[in-house]
Amino acid sequence: MIKVIFFDFDGVIVESVDIKTKAFYRLFDIEGKDVAHKVVDYHLKNAGVSRFDKFRYIYREILKRSLGDEEFHGLCNRFAGLVVENVVKAPYVKGAKEFLENYAAGYKCFIVSATPHEEIEEIIRRRRIGTFFKAVYGAPAKKNDIVRGALIRENTDSCNAVYVGDAMSDYLAAKENGVVFIARVTDENSRIFKDADCIKMKDLTNLKEVVTSVCRREKKNLG
User: Fold this and answer.
1) What CA–CA distance (Å, rounded) separates 198 from 184?
2) Which pLDDT band holds residue 222 (cuts at 50, 70, 90)?
3) Whole-number mean pLDDT of the chain?
4) Which residue of 20, 111, 158, 180 is 20 to 30 Å from 213, comparing CA positions?
5) What is the chain's Cα-based Rg?
6) DSSP state string for 145-193
7) Domain assignments of the chain as residue spans, ordered by start
8) Is 127 exposed, middle or buried (0-12, 13-18, 19+ CB in 10 A)?
9) Is the pLDDT of residue 33 over 60?
10) 166-171 mean pLDDT
């Protein structure tokens, strides 16, 4: 029986992936359009990785220069300034709000995000959806560690959990913990899940039915 549902946030609960992409471009446009496009390409290929890790990679591998603490914190603050208000106002992924309103009370739901912890907590609070989630987790904690820790604390076997995400980091966090993965697939991320062993959905409209089908499948395997 499915008891726990892990949700990524951007691109799973709300349509906010493009907001983050535009923010990366704006931050590095000052370095030239070629650099900005390389940054965006890296960002898109590494969805679900924290901006902390992305900034360090961008400076080390793309800009080829060191990133001091002051500049690093400045980047983080400017990025947050570009995205928070827009993410708060972003539309829900189709079916997400309805699932939370109608079914979240029947599960232990968790947010597992690469967004900085305090920032994702603020976004959840301002969107007034905190009551749907038992806990909200963000960076710098790693997603696989979050999932493993939550399963232990909830005394829940991995076969009683599912993870809904839209990035390879979500897929790996689920697989490393033996959790069934449900991919929210879009035109932008369909390639990375083309050969992935997972359930695929265009939106969350039928999430309740999919979760129920996972539950039935687990019962059949046990039987």
Assistant:
1) 10
2) very low
3) 94
4) 111
5) 18
6) HHHHHHHHHTT--GGGEEEEESSHHHHHHHHHTT-EEEEE--TTTTTTT
7) 4-14+91-222, 17-89
8) middle
9) yes
10) 94
Distance CA 126, CA 145 (A): 26
pLDDT at 199: 95
Nearest residue to 199 via CA among 220, 177, 170? 170
Beta-ladder partners of 186: none
- Three-state DSSP at 155 gives coil
Strand, coil or helix: what is 46? coil
Q: How far apart are CA 63 and CA 35, in angstroms?
A: 8
User: What whole-number percentage of the chain has pLDDT above 90?
Assistant: 87
Tracing tokens 């696989």 back to the chain, one arrives at 144
pLDDT score of 22: 96
| From the candidate CATH numbers 3.40.50.10540, 3.40.50.1000, 3.40.50.2300, 3.50.4.10, the one assigned to the domain spanning 4-14+91-222 | 3.40.50.1000
Q: What integer pLDDT is reported at residue 208 of this predicted model? A: 96
* pTM score, whole prediction: 0.91
Q: Which strands form 4-7's sheet, in the order they lie side by side?
A: 135-139, 108-116, 4-7, 161-165, 180-184, 199-201
Residue 82, pLDDT > 90, answer yes
